[in-house]
TrEMBL record:
CDD domains: ENDO3c. Gene3D superfamilies: Hypothetical protein, domain 2 (1.10.340.30). It comes from the Bacteria. Residues 1-41 are annotated as: Disordered. Keywords: DNA damage, DNA repair. It catalyses: Hydrolysis of alkylated DNA, releasing 3-methyladenine, 3-methylguanine, 7-methylguanine and 7-methyladenine. This is DNA-3-methyladenine glycosylase II. InterPro entries: Alkylbase_DNA_Glycosylase/TA, DNA_glycosylase, HhH-GPD_domain. It comes from Streptomyces coeruleoprunus. The keyword Transit peptide does not apply. Its EC number is 3.2.2.21.
Length: 336
């Protein structure tokens, strides 16, 4: 069923009247009053599974699950910064959005929640995947339609531990982002991803303080200089999008795959060059925890067109090898 916009009274809108979406016969939203939308997906939906890949660690200032079952996220949209809150209620999704980017976020709510995804295109060729696919009917691949907000944290995650990357993301966004519109900023202390010019002006010592080496910071600086061109990749076919991203020195197949999985909802963008994934896939599908990228790709070949989904299902199955090899050792470059 198609989504619909609806006015929702708030402390601000009680005095000023119901607030809806401009161009739909309602007044523009006032400061602090949300635009709202209710959308009913025609299939099962697990918000945590769909939106989970957008979260960069438990302290991510751009993403916050709350005890009431809501998921909050901030974005810098073509219309400006915005905050989105989504919650599942009786088979429907209720959404509220604040800020200049509110309408853009609500218009693309179905895409964010996997409306363009086609899970029925996946055919399991292994019992583990068949069982996991059946047990996770609410899994769909998100499509944010925004490149830079996924590209920069993916660059930060290159060749370091996730804890290091999450710390760098948290520190840089909190310091250089802007407070999130609506209650997310004041009450949840969330922030909006900095604009490209702000990333370009971060001094070298602040990158160092955040634990980001010169190679990764230089790659981010090259990317933000052509941010508009890179954002265009969100409307491309995933392979074309990856080729455009990889024109930037420092962005390779690992980073481009991690980006288009989120920005483009790419079901076949399997991540190569990952420290753990080949061993996880090898263990799950062939009992070989020492598999490399080549063997991983060979094992995933029957899922051509759906290899990223297959990898996600393997990760969700919990059938991962016990850790015996040493973890990657964090590097404290701020102490150098």
């Amino acid at each position: 069923m198609a989504g619909r916009y609806a006015p929702r009274p708030t402390r601000t809108s009680v005095r000023g009247g119901a607030v809806g979406v401009p161009g739909r016969g309602r007044l523009p939203a006032q400061q602090g009053s949300p635009r709202t939308r209710t959308w009913t997906p025609p299939w099962p939906l697990d918000l945590g599974l769909v939106l989970g890949p957008l979260r960069r660690g438990p302290g991510d200032p751009t993403f916050r699950p709350t005890p009431d079952g809501s998921f909050w996220r901030t974005s810098r949209t073509p219309g400006g910064p915005g905050t989105l809150r989504v919650a599942a209620r009786a088979g429907s999704v209720e959404a509220e959005a604040w800020g200049a980017g509110a309408e853009w976020l609500l218009d693309r709510l179905p895409d964010l929640l996997g409306a363009q995804d086609e899970p029925d295109a996946f055919t399991a060729h292994h019992r583990l995947l068949a069982v996991t696919h059946r047990l996770r009917p609410g899994l769909r691949l998100t499509r944010t339609g925004l490149v830079m907000e996924s590209l920069i944290p993916s660059i930060l995650e290159q060749k370091v531990t996730t804890d290091e990357a999450y710390r760098a993301w948290r520190l840089l966004v909190r310091k250089y982002g802007e407070p999130a519109p609506g209650p997310a900023g004041a009450e949840l202390r969330m922030a909006v991803f900095p604009e490209p010019r702000t990333w370009a002006l971060i001094p070298s010592w602040e990158w160092h303080r955040a634990g980001v080496d010169s190679k990764r910071s230089a790659t981010i600086l090259r990317a933000v200089r052509v941010a508009r061109r890179l954002e265009e990749a969100a409307a491309m076919e995933p392979e074309d999008a990856r080729r455009r991203l990889e024109l930037i020195p420092g962005i390779g197949p690992w980073t481009s795959a991690e980006t288009v999985q989120r920005s483009n909802g790419a079901p076949d963008a399997v991540t190569v060059g990952d420290y753990h994934l080949p061993g996880i896939v090898g263990h799950a599908l062939a009992g070989n925890r020492n598999a490399d990228d080549d063997e991983m790709l060979e094992l995933l070949a029957p899922y051509a067109g759906q290899r990223h989904r297959a990898a996600r299902l393997i990760l969700l199955s919990g059938n991962t090898p016990p850790r015996r090899a040493p973890r990657m050792t964090p590097r404290d470059i701020a102490a150098l």
